[in-house]
Each structure stands twice: as C-alpha cells, then as structure tokens.
Automatic annotation (TrEMBL):
GO terms for biological process: phospholipid biosynthetic process. Keywords: Acyltransferase, Cell membrane, Lipid biosynthesis, Lipid metabolism, Membrane, Phospholipid biosynthesis, Phospholipid metabolism, Transferase, Transmembrane, Transmembrane helix. Catalyzes the transfer of an acyl group from acyl-phosphate (acyl-PO(4)) to glycerol-3-phosphate (G3P) to form lysophosphatidic acid (LPA). This enzyme utilizes acyl-phosphate as fatty acyl donor, but not acyl-CoA or acyl-ACP. One of its GO terms (molecular function) is acyl-phosphate glycerol-3-phosphate acyltransferase activity. It catalyses: an acyl phosphate + sn-glycerol 3-phosphate = a 1-acyl-sn-glycero-3-phosphate + phosphate. InterPro entries: G3P_acylTferase_PlsY. It holds the Pfam family G3P_acyltransf. It is an enzyme of class 2 (transferase). NCBIfam families: glycerol-3-phosphate 1-O-acyltransferase PlsY. This is Glycerol-3-phosphate acyltransferase. Belongs to the PlsY family. Its EC number is 2.3.1.275. It is a multi-pass membrane protein.
Length: 204
C-alpha cells in the first residue's frame, strides 16, 4: 500500500475514535448518543455528566477536549518528523476532522469538529491558533453560548490565516483551512438554526 494512503487511513481511523463517548461510558456508564444533544463532544459531555455525576463533569469535558485536539495534532507532528510532504500533512489534517465528524465507528456520524480542527490548526499555524483560541475563549465567556463561541473562534482563525500568512508557501492555497472550516460550520447547522431562533442553550 502507498505510504501516503496508509497515513490517510491511519489518521482517519484514529480521529474516528469518539473519545467523549468512550470517557462518558467508562467513568459514568452513560451513552452520550442517548442523552442531551446526542453529540460526542465536550459540551454535551459537560451537560450530560453534570446531571449524573457533577463532580466528574468538568474533568471529563476537559479530557474530551484534550483527546479530540490531540487526534488532530499528534499524527501530523509524527508524520512531519518522519518526513512526509506538507501537502500530505494538510490532507491528513482534513481527514482528521472528517474522521471525527463522520466516524466509521458511529456509522459516519460524529462530533462537531472544533477541538480536532483546532488540533490540526495548531500543528500548522501556531500563531493564528493561539490568537483565535483567545478569541474563542473570550467569546465563550461573554456570550455564554458554546456553539457561537466555537464558530467565532474558527472564523477568526480563517481571517487571521490570511492576515498573517497570506501566502501559504508550502501548499500555495488556503483550501484545506476552508474545507476544515466548512465541515465545522456544516456540522453546526442545527446550532445555527437554533441561534437564529434564539433557542440555543447557554453554558452556565
């Protein structure tokens, strides 16, 4: 098998692991797919576990964010160390988000892709990542709406990537960033509809 295809397959399978769902099941015996929004992400972990076992809620939500971010970050760093071409690395990044959002272990359903997307962004454009992370954090603190803060953070990363790196010389295109952002926004369509109707839940 071609080594590039093998790398794509491995990163997709790793990213397909629904860590939020696994953690909630192991430590609280809860199936996230049957509670709250049904999402496997940290926000649903926090909401659902807070009702069952409040003391574990924040810890499991934080662990979910960390693991979901790492599955976008670590494979790219390892592949870069091995010597894979930058174009291959960006494709791996896209497939990491695809794997998380359309997991083969969940019949091609999955999470919203924000944490995994940010893990990918951190591997390529750390300056934009850090600034947009602060934007995401402060938007969350002010607005108290997780989905809106996440989308603002992702949008800020896209804008910053053009300001700080108008020409991504290694690949000569911002297309992977657009594609990752598109997937994240696509997975947030239900949230966007609720935001428009002013029905989106706040994080308290």
């Amino acid at each position: 098998m071609n080594e590039n295809i093998l790398a794509y397959l491995v990163v997709y399978l790793i990213a397909s692991i629904p860590f939020g769902m696994v953690l909630a099941k192991i430590f609280c015996g809860v199936n996230l797919r049957e509670h709250g929004s049904g999402s496997i992400g940290a926000t649903n972990v926090l909401r659902v576990i807070k009702e069952k076992e409040p003391k574990k809620a924040k810890k499991l939500a934080i662990l979910t964010v960390i693991f979901d971010s790492l599955k976008g970050f670590v494979p790219i760093i390892i592949a870069r160390f091995i010597g894979f071409d930058e174009n291959v690395l960006w494709m791996m990044g896209v497939l990491a988000v695809v794997g998380h959002c359309f997991s083969i272990f969940l019949w091609f359903d999955g999470g919203k892709g924000v944490a995994t997307g940010y893990g990918v962004f951190a591997a390529f454009l750390p300056i934009e990542f850090i600034i947009s992370l602060f934007v995401w954090f402060f938007a969350g603190k002010i607005l108290k709406i997780s989905s809106l803060a996440s989308l603002i953070g992702v949008l800020s990363f896209v804008i910053l990537s053009f300001i700080i790196h108008p020409n991504l010389t290694s690949i000569n295109t911002h297309a992977p960033i657009f594609f990752i952002s598109f997937i994240i926004f696509y997975k947030h369509i239900p949230n966007i509809k609720r935001l428009i109707l002013k029905q989106e839940a706040r994080v308290i």
